[in-house]
Amino acid sequence: MTSARRTDRQPAAPHVADSHDLIRVHGARENNLKDVSIEIPKRRLTVFTGVSGSGKSSLVFNTIAAESQRLINETYSAFVQGFMPTLARPEVDVLDGLTTAIIVDQQRMGADPRSTVGTATDANAMLRILFSRLGDPHIGPPSAYSFNTASVRASGAITVERGNKKAVKATYERTGGMCNRCEGRGKVSDIDLSQLYDDSKSLSEGAFTIPGWKSDSQWTVQVYAQSGFVDPDKPIREYTGKELRDFLYGEPVKVKVGGVNLTYEGLIPKIQKSFLSKDKEAMQPHIRAFVERAVTFTTCPECDGTRLSEGARSSRIGKTSIADACAMEIRDLAEWVRTLDDPSVAPLLTALRDTLDSFVEIGLGYLSLDRPAGTLSGGEAQRVKMIRHLGSSLTDTTYVFDEPTIGLHPHDIQRMNDLLLRLRDKGNTVLVVEHKPETIAIADHVVDLGPGAGTAGGTVCFEGTVEGLRAGDTVTGRHLDDRASLKETVREPTGTLEIRDARTHNLQGVDVDVPLGVLCVVTGVAGSGKSSLIHGSVPAGAGADVVSVDQSPIKGSRRSNPATYTGLLDPIRKAFAKANGVKPALFSANSEGACPTCNGAGVIYTDLAMMAGVATPCEDCEGKRFQASVLEYRLGGRDISEVLAMSVARAEEFFGTGEARTPAAHRILDRLADVGLGYLTLGQPLTTLSGGERQRLKLATHMGDKGGVYVLDEPTTGLHLADVEQLLGLLDRLVDAGKSVVVIEHHQAVMAHADWIIDLGPGAGHDGGRIVFEGTPADLVADRSTLTGEHLAAYVGA
């Protein structure tokens, strides 16, 4: 007994299972990483920072998170893996101590017209069950309340393959909640006939205004002119009712034109098949512009935009239908759900309340469940994805976030920080890629990558505590406490753009004068109505003179790169062709000059079914993408593959002087350098760029446009503290060149640098939508009458 007590007093040796407290990465070489080796503490909050393009995403997402997901996928059977995305093993020597990774990134939610906030978060599914149990009148199962489910009725004979086969009469019926008119989209498309033809002209005079439809020789036009249904020499406005019906809506019928049998079809169905059934993003720019002009979307008159059938709208709990519930702001819906008390659905009400409360807690209480998912900003989409993880009972999981503070007002960043700390305190490892000093400040561990971007980055410059980073001599450490000061003098406006009675989304009849010829910043808490005011009103007020750079993603395949996207490749190809006396098409990897073995891709892709596909460099062109004969042609001593391997900064120098001097190419490269993309290589696939890099690439492309008003939506997205200064210089140059710049922004450095600030609020959703301040930054700081004013005053140290 005595010896047993003595043994109890001795400290127990740590269990071997408790020794795995680190995620070890050794020899990471993904993208621009240069044999990176680090150790990340588990159950802590680690922030990865560094200039844009330094390798943060390559380390966190493409190495650690990707390998975790790949290993989890490998635990499934080969049959199941065949249905899952295939992932290649990252370029890394050792990855040790990994746990299950949950990735919460900035990818926009699918822009499918039937995808809403409710369908993306399961809140709609719970509401449908609720109404199917408590709704009066009862109209059917949960599918009867779903705008994605159409009603189906069928009857007929079926043969039962059992014993003596015999035919049995059977009926099948399914009640769906989809509105028949708009098919669950809430909007119906209408074609603007004035964009298709000039009704004062006849067909023989060239009435059609559709791109590519010439009246003299084009077969499509001749079918209408010689069909016999209409008089080709009579102006369209003088057609009889029958002629106009046949012209616009005629059924397909064979007609003889010039001795050839062709199909005549009414103009509207013809346009719908030729243009509207195709992916708009894949169209040529002038065709896309025509479609955007010709097709107008209006609220469905039958369901009034609710997407639901009359039966689904008629069923109510109390006085509220499911359409009313989905149209409420989520914080109001949460209050309504609290008023319901029915023991038969108690577990459902509890789960629904928890989900709706998570929305409010995360700062998205101003959204409604019927908000289309494609209209959410990157930051809102990321926070919506967080909802399902907040109440999760999982621990010892790795959560990976990509700039969770994007789109957040300084007032909201504290709330996001609290959520990250809550996830950590439940025993999870939280990895955050971030630039904002407010989030870097709460980190337990910081990894700073750099020192530069692209080939100049990819190494770990610092690893340790926030205090150590602040004291260290890295780019991030030096800029961590940067504070922009208020300008002593501000520019005077050269005019104003009047916005009157703006009521888009939550705007409450806003009247405001946006000053022109200055740097104007529009700010306010998330959901206060900034984008609704600017994107909804400025283009209409300024006509076609507006260049709008929003956060919509760039679509591009692995064949697309900065050179093709910006149009830079055109002058480069022409310069090569002129210098060598050959065709420009030879210098395109997507055209005649492509290596025939890999078709200009540079790699050979081998599909291995459920296993990760293998990409091996093409042996014939050695990954250069061009035929050997094309690489013999040179410009300034370089072949086309060497030029595409140059960084923007190097190419800017190359095309600026000497034999390779090409002013058209140099202008585009200047703009790319201006937006802080000097480190990108010209041939780098667009699929490898971050969200912030893509937005700045889009900005560089639009800087060559002739617009007088530039509207920028959070251009600091993805920018390191050191790069914000360069962006401010770019905005100043645009204004000094006579442009008007309107910036929707939360970054205090941009606010402090503005000539004029328009602050919306005071809150989000129906608590916002009003102008709470107009004036100079200095006046905003002096007043401190708004949340923005308080945070800006604290930022500038006033």
Automatic annotation (TrEMBL):
InterPro entries: ABC_transporter-like_ATP-bd, P-loop_NTPase. Gene3D superfamilies: ABC transporter ATPase domain-like (1.10.8.280), ABC transporter ATPase like domain (1.20.1580.10), P-loop containing nucleotide triphosphate hydrolases (3.40.50.300). Keywords: ATP-binding, Cytoplasm, DNA damage, DNA excision, DNA repair, DNA-binding, Excision nuclease, Nucleotide-binding, Repeat. It comes from the Bacteria. Residues 490-787 form the ABC transporter domain. It is found in: Cytoplasm. PROSITE patterns: ABC_TRANSPORTER_2. Its main location: cytoplasm. Belongs to the ABC transporter superfamily. UvrA family. This is UvrABC system protein A.
